[in-house]
Task: inverse folding
C-alpha cells in the first residue's frame, strides 16, 4: 500500500486528513494515501491541531512536542513531522494502533461508515 510517510533526517513526514468536532478522538485508518484522524476539538485557535498532536503522540509513543504541523495548519489535509521516528517504525506503530481501534487497513469499512449509511460504491 502506498502511503505518504516520507523519511527525513529530522523525522518522518506523515500526510493526515483530520475531522474536527468528531464524537471521539480516533485514528480511523488509511484513505487515499493519508491517515484519517478524528478529534473532538473544534478547528478554532489551533485546538484541533493540538488535539491531533496529542492523539498521534499517544498512539506513536512519542512526546507531543516531537510532532509539528509542516503544512495545512488551517485545513483538514495536513502534513506533520514526527521527530525521532523512521518511516518503518512509524508505519508499524500506526498499523498496530489502527488494528486495535478496529479501523480499516487501507480503506474505510462499512462499520466506520455506520449502520444507516450505504457504501460509497454499492455492488451491481
Result:
Amino acid at each position: 500500500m502506498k502511503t505518504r510517510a516520507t523519511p527525513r533526517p529530522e523525522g518522518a513526514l506523515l500526510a493526515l486528513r483530520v475531522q474536527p468536532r468528531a464524537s471521539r478522538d480516533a485514528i480511523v485508518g488509511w484513505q487515499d494515501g493519508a491517515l484519517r484522524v478524528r478529534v473532538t476539538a473544534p478547528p478554532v485557535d489551533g485546538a484541533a491541531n493540538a488535539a491531533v498532536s496529542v492523539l498521534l503522540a499517544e498512539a506513536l509513543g512519542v512526546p507531543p512536542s516531537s510532532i509539528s504541523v509542516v503544512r495545512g495548519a488551517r485545513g483538514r489535509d495536513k502534513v506533520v513531522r514526527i521527530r525521532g521516528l523512521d518511516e518503518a517504525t512509524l508505519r508499524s506503530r500506526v498499523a498496530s494502533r489502527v488494528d486495535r481501534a478496529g479501523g480499516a487497513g487501507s480503506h474505510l469499512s462499512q462499520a466506520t461508515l455506520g449502520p444507516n449509511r450505504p457504501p460509497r460504491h454499492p455492488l451491481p
